[in-house]
């Protein structure tokens, strides 16, 4: 990830768009464009191919799922283009489609559950670095809508660890949340990879594939 990652912001409300721009700039991002409509977002993504984009779901002209539809369309043409969805709503069908290519670099946060700047900036950086940043409420809705269970072989503790991985937590953060050692987390993640049939690769990619299995997208 570059020292000053290039970012596109897509939000139809001026005050929130301006606030996001100032927040990202203050934390070391170069906001190359901030837009308020779906067509502007598509042009900005294709023209800049930014290191990360923060995208609202409901934008003009339709005010339905314009932002997410544009993100999907551009990401089909530019695989792995990092997208962090920031919305008031969980659009399950499109969220699954956004995750399904298996490339990672995806996040989905709910606006009313972002409680401080550090939480938000950490999520943006994780997505820019190729990882995932999923709100637990989004995860719960995606898992609840998954008819199959690819995780039947996992123990309850392994499922818990995998759920925190889906949020974007590092091994150290998982250890802190669950109150056991980082070494124990490493053993759990190794077991998760083995049970899900995820072969040795770089650790970031294996985590992404495990998260995709957890969310039931079939991205591997």
UniProtKB/TrEMBL annotation:
Chain positions with 4-aspartylphosphate modification: 56
Family matches, as InterPro entries: CheY-like_superfamily (IPR011006), NreC/VraR/RcsB-like_REC (IPR058245), Sig_transdc_resp-reg_C-effctor (IPR016032), Sig_transdc_resp-reg_receiver (IPR001789), Tscrpt_reg_LuxR_C (IPR000792), WalR-like (IPR039420)
HTH luxR-type domain boundaries: 147-217
One of the protein's GO biological processes: regulation of DNA-templated transcription
Matching CDD domains: LuxR_C_like, REC_NarL-like
Domain Response regulatory: start-end pairs: 6-126
SUPFAM superfamilies: C-terminal effector domain of the bipartite response regulators, CheY-like
Pfam families: GerE, Response_reg
Keywords: DNA-binding, Phosphoprotein, Transcription, Transcription regulation
PROSITE patterns named in the record: HTH_LUXR_2, RESPONSE_REGULATORY
GO molecular function: DNA binding
PANTHER family xref list: TRANSCRIPTIONAL REGULATORY PROTEIN NARL-RELATED (PTHR43214:SF24), TWO-COMPONENT RESPONSE REGULATOR (PTHR43214)
UniProt name for this protein: DNA-binding response regulator
Species whose genome carries this gene: Amycolatopsis thailandensis
């Amino acid at each position: 990830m570059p020292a000053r990652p290039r970012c596109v912001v897509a939000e139809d409300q001026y005050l929130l768009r301006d606030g996001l721009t100032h927040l990202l700039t203050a934390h070391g991002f170069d906001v190359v464009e901030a837009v308020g409509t779906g067509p502007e977002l598509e042009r900005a993504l294709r023209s800049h191919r930014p290191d990360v984009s923060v995208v609202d779901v409901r934008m003009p002209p339709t005010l339905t799922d314009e932002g997410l539809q544009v993100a999907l369309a551009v990401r089909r043409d530019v695989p792995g283009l990092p997208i962090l969805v920031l919305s008031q709503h969980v659009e399950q069908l499109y969220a699954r489609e956004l995750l399904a290519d298996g490339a990672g670099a995806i996040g989905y946060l709910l606006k009313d559950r972002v409680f401080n700047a550090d939480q938000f900036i950490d999520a943006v950086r994780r997505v820019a670095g190729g990882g995932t940043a999923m709100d637990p409420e989004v995860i719960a809705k995606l898992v609840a809508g998954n008819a199959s269970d690819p995780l039947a072989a996992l123990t309850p503790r392994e499922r818990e660890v995998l759920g925190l991985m889906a949020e974007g937590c590092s091994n150290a953060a998982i250890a802190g949340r669950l109150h056991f050692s980082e070494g124990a987390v490493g053993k759990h993640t190794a077991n998760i990879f083995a049970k899900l049939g995820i072969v040795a690769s770089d650790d970031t990619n294996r985590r992404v594939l495990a998260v995709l299995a957890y969310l039931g997208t079939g991205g591997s």
